[in-house]
Design a protein that fits this description.
SHC Adaptor Protein, 3 domains, 12 strands, about 25% strand, alpha+beta
Amino acid sequence: MRRVTNSHRRRPSDVASDLIRTLFGRLTKKQTPNGFRSLSTGDLADSTVVPVGSEHSDYMEMQFNPTPTTSKLDPNFDDADRVPMRFSKDAPPKLLNQARASSRKLMCSGSDEDLRQYHVSDLHDSQKWFYRNVDSRKAERLLMDAGFQEGSFLIYCVGELYQICVLHNGKFVHLRILYRIKNGIPRWNLEINQSFKNLLEMVNYYRSHKGFVLPTMLKHGVARPVKIPTSSHRTRA
């Protein structure tokens, strides 16, 4: 019996080599006149070549601009950022300034505008008679340096402990100011029957009212002494 050989039968190694070359050729980027085209896995199944940019093309042509583009947004911009706004039924939304700057501007102008829009701590820091991280001995020294006047005062605090120091009849009187939060609103009390939303409201009240605990009305709020810089060079007369 004569054995019939198939001269057209290819060896497995040749088939594998052709497959590797085909895959490598399809995965290689092809350059177009306008840029580069990225090939997807769909190229492995396509048997026909469709020109890039035609309506039947499944590929995306990407343009590469040699000039880098820059964004006009702040590099630290975050879409979760918030800005202080005031909303009213009869007026359009209004952008508010920062709390500290607004409170200082309010106190310098002496306006009676509603203070609820300002943060309480910033409102306190804007007052000349309010001191943070000052003890009782430092408070007495400040009152003495200010002229030792009757009714002069200042409020000092460490953390959430608030106290007022008042000069009365040549003596320093230190009284604790009670601080608490009621229904989410901070309150300050110097006496049981009087409650205030902030220390500025309390000081304004006792400027014209004498309390049971406070021995005198508040008169002169003591500010920090201004340090005048001295020149290191002296001139001869």
